[in-house]
Amino acid sequence: MLRAGIVGLPNVGKSTLFNAVTAQTSALAANYPFATSKSNVGVVPVPDQRLVPLAKLVKTETIIPATIEFVDIAGLVRGSSKGEGLGNQFLVSIRESDTVVQVVRCFENDEIVHVEGSIDAKRDIETIQIELALADLASVERRRERATKNAKGGDKTARAELEVIDKFQPALEEFRPARSVTLTQDERAIARGFFLLTTKPTIYAANVDEATLANSSGNPQVEAVRQVAEAEAAECVVICAQLEAELVALAPEERRDYLSALDVTSSGVDSLIQSAYRLLGLMSFLTAGEKEVRAWTIPQGTRAQQAAGAIHSDLERGFIRAEVVSYAHLLSAGSYANARDQGILRLEGKEYVMQEGDVVHFRFNV
Fold first, then answer.
1. Where are the alpha helices (DSSP H) in the chain?
2. How many CB atoms lie within 10 A of CB 113?
3. Does residue 5 sit in helix, strand or coil?
4. Are 235 and 7 in contact, with CB atoms under 8 Å apart?
5. Four-residue CA torsion sign, 202, 208, 214, 218
6. DSSP type of residue 320
7. Which of 213, 218, 300, 338 maximizes the CB count within 10 A of its CB?
8. Which residues are CB-neighbours of 18 under 8 A, at least 6 positions away?
């Protein structure tokens, strides 16, 4: 399952956002540093407007959306790379995440203390970047020692590692993330084995107050976050964590009405989840029958046989054919039988590249 770690300085709204994202209140939201002393974990459904209409079409009441695991990670402070505060725990939790959601405080509120004493989004981002870069630099230096020793013995893999380290180290010494370094395809494969924190794909969540949400472009703190995200080719989502947490108590229709009254078209939580999918190059295919309608997560470019394996290894091992129809075509046809009669239900082989929104039935034999 995809795992997204929510990070940031203390008191920027991480736990409040986690509560909103996971639609529950298990995370302690309090006005003091390290209110979150250990990671809270929640499994979150991926918003997908196709599932309910598809369930009605196949006459089932069981709907299983794709999911993401969100982790509320303890707050970071200066010196975390050396174990200050809860730094060691913070760094371990990031290392175990597939993507990082960095919450950046972009609102003023005298009643909520800021660990640095003032609101400065760019400074806060840089604080976290420096700590992660320092942690990665220590990892790279340890790896250099080992690779240098092995390279002297003629180890070609160690020599290749040293070439990648030579690219990473100058960037990290300048507190730039490792993901900003240009690598060849072979070098990227080697770098994956380094498990560096700053290679993690990052989403910046600019946390604003309710008054700013509809017109965030007028907030200089939000603009600072957007500039950082654009420079890194990262994602930026503007969100009001406090509002999203309050929306949890409302029925879906009431949520839409409330957002509409604020001139906001969609939930920031939905945008956050969708950004995680885009950033990691993920997509969903669907299965639909009398038993259930379900969304399955796969990387973009996945072929049919490997997609079958996302459901069960037996389907991949015994793959014969995939019956495929697009969601839009199936809904237009009104049934599988009509789709088959109209020639829009196709039989595809194992090399077929799956498309977003494919509705699939796999034929297999083991």
1. 14-21, 51-58, 87-95, 121-152, 156-173, 185-192, 220-232, 241-247, 252-261, 268-279, 304-311, 313-317, 327-333, 336-341
2. 13
3. strand
4. no
5. negative
6. E
7. 213
8. 6, 27, 40, 42, 70, 72
What tokens appear for 306 in the block? 């490997």
Instruction: Give residues with Cβ within 8 angstroms of 185, minimum separation 6.
Output: none
Q: Are strands 319-326 and 346-348 parallel, antiparallel or unpaired?
A: antiparallel
pLDDT in tens, the chain (366 residues): 788 888 888 888 888 888 877 765 444 343 433 334 345 788 888 889 999 999 999 999 999 998 888 888 766 655 555 554 444 556 777 888 889 999 999 988 888 877 778 889 999 999 988 988 998 999 999 999 999 999 988 889 999 999 999 999 999 999 999 998 999 999 999 999 999 989 999 999 999 988 888 788 889 999 999 999 998 888 899 999 888 888 878 887 888 888 888 888 777 888 888 888 888 889 999 999 999 999 999 999 999 999 999 999 999 999 999 999 999 999 999 999 999 999 999 999 999 999 999 999 999 998
* C-alpha distances out from residue 192 to 69, 70, 161, 186, 199, Å: 21, 22, 11, 10, 8
Residue in this structure with the two tokens 């929510």, named with its chain if needed: 6
Q: How far apart are CA 36 and CA 93, in angstroms?
A: 13
Q: In sequence order, what DSSP letters do the residues of 245-276 get, joined into one string?
A: HHHTTS-HHHHHHHHHHTT--S-HHHHHHHHH
Q: Are 309 and 318 in contact (CB under 8 A)?
A: no
Q: Give Cα separations from 259 to 47, 105, 243, 264, 338 (angstroms).
A: 17, 21, 10, 5, 39
Q: Which two tokens stand for residue 307?
A: 């997609």
Q: What is d(CA 330, CA 335) in angstroms, rounded to the nearest whole number?
A: 6
What is the Cα Rg of the chain in Å?
Answer: 23
